[in-house]
Design a protein that fits this description.
three-stranded antiparallel sheet; alpha+beta; 1 helix; two-stranded antiparallel ribbon; about 20% helix
């Protein structure tokens, strides 16, 4: 299991416009500086993350049959 660095862990605050330290509750996390809700990624980082996932995802579908000429 990975060790979590408590002091280095940050989330993105839309209000502050940067990755900040946060306070975690049961349902949401809040910026330690301004008190607004925070997200895991900024919009740009979220799009980049999904692009990387899409590139790594297998194409899917059924494999082609090997047709040997007789």
């Amino acid at each position: 299991m990975d060790q979590v660095d408590f002091y280095g862990d940050r989330k993105y605050c839309h209000h502050c416009g940067e990755y900040v330290h946060y306070l975690m509750s049961l349902e949401h996390s809040y910026c330690a500086g301004c008190g607004n809700r925070v997200r895991l990624f900024s919009e740009a980082d979220w799009a980049q993350f999904h692009e990387q996932i899409r590139e790594q995802r297998p194409k899917g579908g059924r494999p082609r049959k090997n047709r040997e000429s007789a």
